[in-house]
Amino acid sequence: MAEADDVPVEEIQKLAIDSAEGVDTGYKAPAKVDLTTIQSLDADDESLVKYKQNLLGQTEGCLDEGGNNVLVKKFTIEITGKDPIDIDLTGDLSKLKKTPLKIPEGSMYRVKITFRVQRDIVSGLRFFSNVIRKGIKVDKNSYMVGSYGPKTEEQIYQSPMEEAPSGMLARGQYKAQCKFTDDDKNTILEWEWFFEIVKK
C-alpha cells in the first residue's frame, strides 16, 4: 500500500480547482464615514439614536491596543469529538508552519476566528482560505464575516461545519493559506498553517 506522501502529483492534479480568487460582482464599497460622524447624524431622531446605540454598542472608553483597527487574535480548529486547537495569531506567524495539525480523515470540523474592532466601524470583513497539496490548489473558501463596530470584547466568527477528505489519496500534508480582509480589499492579516489528514 502506498504511503500518503507517495501519491503521484498527477492524481492530486485531478483534484485541482480553478485558482481564480472569485468573480467580480461589480460591488463598490460605500464611502468611509468615521464613527463620530455616524453618531452625530440624526441626533434629533430619538428612535434612530437608540437604534445606533444598539447597533454600535458602548463605544466610549473602548479599549485601544494600538496598531490596526481590526486585531485578529486567534484561529481555532474544532474537530467533532476532540478538544479545540487554538492557534495564536498575535506572535510570530512563521512558527505555524513548523508543526502540522492532525485531522482524522472524514471527521467534521470548523474554524473559528477571534478578533477585535478597536476604533472605527469595519465593513464587509471576509475570511479566505486556500488549501494546497504538493503545489496544487485543491480547495478554496470565501466566507462573509460581516460588519462590526468597535468593542472592548472580542468577537468570534465561526465557519460552517465541513467534512475532512478521506481515503488513501486524501491522506498526507496540506498547506492552508488564510487571509482576513475588509470591504475596501485591505488585507488585515495573512497566515499559513499546515495540517495532515491522518487515518482514523
Order of helices and strands: HHHEEEEEEEEEE
Task: Give the CA-CA distance, first to last residue.
Answer: 16 Å
Oligomer: single chain
Proportion of strand residues: 35-45%
pLDDT < 50 stretches: none
Mean pLDDT: 83
The tally of strands reads 10
Radius of gyration: 20 Å
Q: Helical proportion?
A: 10-25%
Return the structural class: mainly beta
Q: Helical stretch count?
A: 3
Shape: elongated
Q: Strand count, sense and closure of the main sheet?
A: 5 strands, antiparallel
Explained architecture:
The chain is mainly beta and 200 residues long. 11% of the residues lie in helices and 40% in strands. Strands 1, 2, 4, 7 and 8 form a 5-stranded antiparallel β-sheet that branches. A 5-stranded mixed β-sheet has the order 3-10-9-5-6. A hairpin with a 5-residue loop joins strand 1 and strand 2. The protein is elongated. The chain starts with 8 loop residues before the first helix and ends with a strand.
Keywords:
200 residues; mainly beta; five-stranded antiparallel sheet; five-stranded mixed sheet; 3 helices; 10 strands; 40% strand
